[in-house]
Structure to design on (254 residues):
């Protein structure tokens, strides 16, 4: 049965949570039901003080997310289209607003809304067989909402090429363009994701949460504003013992 699968792993330094979109028989394409469940699931994670890292993935080996469900979209009117795309935006924004680093584990197709979902994650690790694209124009609609993130990751010209042509690119080109951070063989993806998780889990929890807030804020601020707002965040880090404890440990181990 289709749905959102969630599993939690308690590690030595906090909790790792895996969120899997499970509609493998339909390339994990998302419909209203899945979007509502995904948003609810992600928003529920934000209250967990032990949460340290989230892994987003799609069930099976054929797709991360194959996009939004065309069988559902074909019936849309202007009014219901606005509702549908707003629901998709809210689900993707819930990924972006998670208070901890989010890693997209990508295998197979990553298309349309799926590519936007991946863009909302903090990091993207993909298999060499993955395919990326924004094919909306070929079904008569523009790429919207979090497609706006693509230019920030890969540059305006490359984002424009994807949304104008609807062509698919392979994982190697997605890496060259800066959309993904690592490309590995299919049997190595879990190890690659695990290495990132280990590094995140070994860092200071409060520092990691603060860093996530800063990265999200920097997306919407000028350079001067970003620098200015980060100063009190740095100062506030010393309101707990985390920095001094870790700095003393670093000095003692030199």
């Amino acid at each position: 049965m289709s749905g959102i699968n969630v599993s939690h792993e308690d590690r030595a330094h906090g909790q790792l949570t895996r969120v899997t979109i499970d509609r493998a028989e339909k390339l994990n394409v998302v419909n209203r039901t899945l979007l509502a469940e995904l948003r609810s699931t992600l928003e529920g994670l934000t209250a967990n003080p032990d949460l340290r890292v989230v892994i987003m993935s799609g069930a099976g080996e054929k797709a991360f997310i194959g996009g939004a469900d065309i069988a559902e979209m074909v019936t849309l009117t202007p009014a219901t289209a606005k509702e549908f795309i707003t629901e998709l935006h809210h689900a993707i924004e819930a990924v972006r607003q998670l208070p901890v680093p989010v890693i997209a584990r990508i295998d197979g197709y990553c298309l349309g809304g799926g590519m936007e979902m991946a863009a909302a994650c903090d990091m993207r690790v993909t298999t060499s067989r993955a395919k990326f694209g924004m094919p909306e124009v070929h079904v008569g609609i523009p790429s919207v909402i979090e497609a706006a993130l693509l230019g920030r990751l890969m540059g305006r010209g490359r984002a424009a090429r994807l949304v104008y042509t609807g062509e698919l690119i392979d994982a190697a080109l997605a890496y060259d363009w800066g959309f993904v951070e690592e490309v590995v063989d299919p049997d190595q993806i879990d190890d690659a994701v695990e290495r990132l998780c280990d590094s995140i889990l070994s860092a200071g929890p409060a520092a990691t949460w603060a860093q996530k807030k800063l990265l999200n804020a920097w997306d919407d601020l000028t350079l001067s504003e970003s620098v200015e707002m980060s100063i009190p965040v740095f100062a506030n880090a010393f309101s707990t013992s985390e920095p001094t404890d870790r700095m003393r440990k670093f000095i003692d181990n030199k």
